[in-house]
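Standup notes
- DV: blocked on the single-chain target, sequence here:
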Amino acid sequence: AFMIRRSVFEELGGFDEDLFLVYEDVDLSYRAQLRGYLCLYVPAACVRHAGSATIGAVSRVSIFYGQRNLEWVYFKNSPAWILLRTLPWHVIYSLAGGLSLIPAGLFGVWCSAKWDALKGLPRVLRKRRTVQRSRRTDPRRIWALMSRSWLMLKWREKRFDRGTLAAR
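- DV (later): unblocked, structure below
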């Protein structure tokens, strides 16, 4: 679940409509952090949600929009200092994700998503200028908020995804 004050939502310009379907909440949260707002993660909160009821947990639609929008959120919002520190790992993670889709016959969807992300990059970079100019927090603050164990978290996530893919 995601909650935000209306005034902050409006200040940030609301959801980025280019991120149709997936990652729009992540994008908004990232932009809020860049403006200096506090975002809280409350793992003990219980929300009943029909997750992925519309597009499916592992479907062509979820993979396409998830993989495309991942790139747009990353390049639009990450300060240059963070991009330089994380880009090699981002590329490795992204390629590993694509390769993990081969057994399910979904690698082509991944390739289409990345190609679409690349085609949209000029628009994303224009938005990036606006986002980075309006930033009111130091990139080191954002860096401090990032998980250092993200690779292990993603590994567990991908292991679950492989189980889901194998069941298809």
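- Follow-up: Helices lie at 6-11, 24-34, 60-77, 80-100, 107-133, 139-145, 150-166.
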